[in-house]
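Support request, priority: normal
Reporter: lab tech (M.K.)
Component: structure prediction queue

Hi team, I submitted a job for FecR domain-containing protein from Methylophilus glucosoxydans yesterday, and the status page still shows it as pending. I've pasted the exact input below so you can check whether something in the sequence is tripping the parser. The sequence length should be 332 residues. Please let me know if I need to resubmit or if it's stuck on your end.
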Amino acid sequence: MKSSAVKVGMSPVEQLALQQAAEWFAVLSDDAPEASERQAWQAWLTAHPAHQRAWAEVEAINAAFSNLNAVASKSASHQALLHSSGRRQALKMLGLAGVTYLGVSLLHRYSPWQDWLTTLTASAITYRTPAGRTHRVLLADQGKLWLNTDTQVRVAYGWMLRRITLEYGEILLQSGHDPQARPLVVDTQHGRLTALGTRFTVCQEDTRSLLAVYEGRVAITPSQGTAITLSAGQQAYFDQYGVGAIQAALPAREAWTRGILIADNQSLKDFIAELARYHSTRLSVAPDIAHLRLMGAYPFANVPLVLQEITHSLGIRQHTDAQGNIQLLPAA
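Reply from support: The job had stalled in the queue. We restarted it manually and it finished. Here are the results:
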């Protein structure tokens, strides 16, 4: 077998090639594959260097479990792999011993293999919160997941991987103990975060994501960049190409799990932008008071009360238009 080096930052082309190679392996392992299938496989193999590398990886892994008890059923297994409704049937055909062996072989190999087997073996659950609401989820490994306002995640715990996909919004994750020692990852559109016994928040924005680590360590692997690990007390923005400057993690970033927004010498403009995420109508600040600074802890469950407190403490006023939108203005 090849060495167990981990390959990070794999491109979408390579990820797709590995999945296709696995499916071609199932096709060609049939007792009597059609000549047209062999020709199609050959055309696929020579179409791109990534296909050849992926096929070499499949052959190396196949050599490690060539005596699986499912060799005679691989044609049906291929059909199960191609149709999501038959994924668990595919596992039965591979045999528990084969899946276990495959899991050990691939655990420290390419992450796309882990993703592929997780997709194969896991039943994904989607959780979402509307604007103005938060929610806590107890995960299968006894870890805890908090969803901030207007957030959606997909949780898929499979044979190889515990994977949480942040589709939009913000989460706080406190990892649990997994007897199977499966890696725990959080995917955003900008890259992958691998938890190393930890508690951290992730906020996905349009062009970047923010990771703040409060316990343990978290490895950031941008989609097309170099991996870097943050320790407790650190935070950084990252996009698909790399990780920005490492800064001190702000404890205020996890206060929302307790229903509180903390302003630590924060500008009025930035605080109101955050508060607006928990309100049904638009909140804004007049430019000439946007620079004012705020200190304090505010319960976002009662936005009108928070606005009343802010206007009183800063000596400003608020105006509500016919649509219910609120703007903070200088004192009259």
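Residues 259-329 form a domain with the Phage tail protein beta-alpha-beta fold fold (CATH 3.55.50.30). Residues 1-9, 64-110 have pLDDT under 50 and may be disordered. Let us know if anything else looks off. Ticket resolved.
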